[in-house]
Amino acid sequence: MPLLMRRLSGSPVRTIYLTKTSLGSTGPYSEQELITALKSRDDQAFSYLYDHYSGSLYSIILQIVKRPETASDVLQEVFVNIWRKIESYDPIKGRLFTWMLNISRNASIDMLRSKNYQNSLKNQEITDTVYGSDQVTQTSIDSIGLSKFLAKLRPEQRVLIDLAYFKGYTHDEIAQIEDIPLGTVKTRIRNALLQLREDLK
Amino acid sequence: MNVQEYISSGIVESYVLGIASREDSAEFERMCAAHSEVRAARNAFELDLEETLLKQRLEPPRELKSRIFSKIGMEKNEQTPHVRPAKPTLVPRIGFARYVAAASLILLAGSVLLNLYLLNQYKKSIAQYKELVATETNVAAANQVLQTKLESYEIVLGVMKNPLMAIIKMPGVPTGPAPSGMATVYWNTSSKDVYILVNQLPKPVSDKQYQLWAIVDGKPVDAGIFDVGEGVSFVKLKTIPKAQAFAVTLEKKGGSTTPTMEAMYVMGKVTG
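Predict the joint structure of the above. Result:
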């Protein structure tokens, strides 16, 4: 487990840029139009989807898998899966972005747990030991999206959110890993989430 | 727990972020269906999250988009045949899967038969092709032979047509080895070149050759040796400036310095 917990970084991350988006806007498409176009396998709609969302999804993926090459592979898998599974997307259960965000997170966590990734992680550790790890990259990942929010939490909350959201452990597993009662895990995570809710508003 | 307490329990956030347990998620979906407030809370959090995350993005590698599009483009092409359903109402009793399985077996059998047929055709074609190539080679060889023959005939004809040619017929010597033999000397009166045409002479044994002699002032002068083979024998021999007669004897291979008189086959006098 300590192996997993260790913060690792890959080669430098590309430039971070900000885009102005109005609340919930999906540009030339309304959310409903975009979904309809995607379900009819419209290439243009898919191209728009990529242009509009790939940066955010890549950012989340990178925060989980840490390494740009791995993140690219996961992002590719994610978009291919979005294209394959768009039929099964149900707007009743949530917004399109939420659905894609969860596909991205799940694919990233699957990647974290894959044998290939675990093996390359060991090699990376050796490289880091020899050349020193790239702190600049780590900082830039930490300063974006949910990681930025994570940094604001109290340490005992941060560890639990990191395990739950970025590592994909269940509350039971976290209670075992951290050796604290399940109730404490639930309370701390709940409080952290409510703080996130306020931060996002 | 009333609806408001439920909304504030952190379930909205953990559901949207995907960290709620399976049971909690199922319950949340039931609550969403039942209470518009829960739906509204979820939607509000989703919008806030989406807005925040869309603002802070990292650019993925540029080539990734085209990689993804070529991948889904490939899958699209693979899937195209499945998109059109094959009138399932026409076969209501048989399950579609069975229908497909049967159809694919038929197609497979058809494909095997077609392949066997094509293989057979291919083998036949190869054999025919080889035959044609062989025939073509034979024809080319035969053509080459004819060409050579034709060229030699043209030379012969050219010589015979020449108005400067003196023609000396040499009949068989009545007391010689071939009384019915015959040969003809073509003698260019200008260049003095001598050609011999064998009309009829027996083929000699392998260690012997015919030799032409020019009789000059009563003495035999060597005019060259020649062979008698298949077809027309028409050979250019030596240049003879002056002669009263010509004769052919059979000599040892390579010729002799003096003729063997008892082996004289044909002889003819130069007229005029």
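The first helix of chain A runs from residue 2 to 5.
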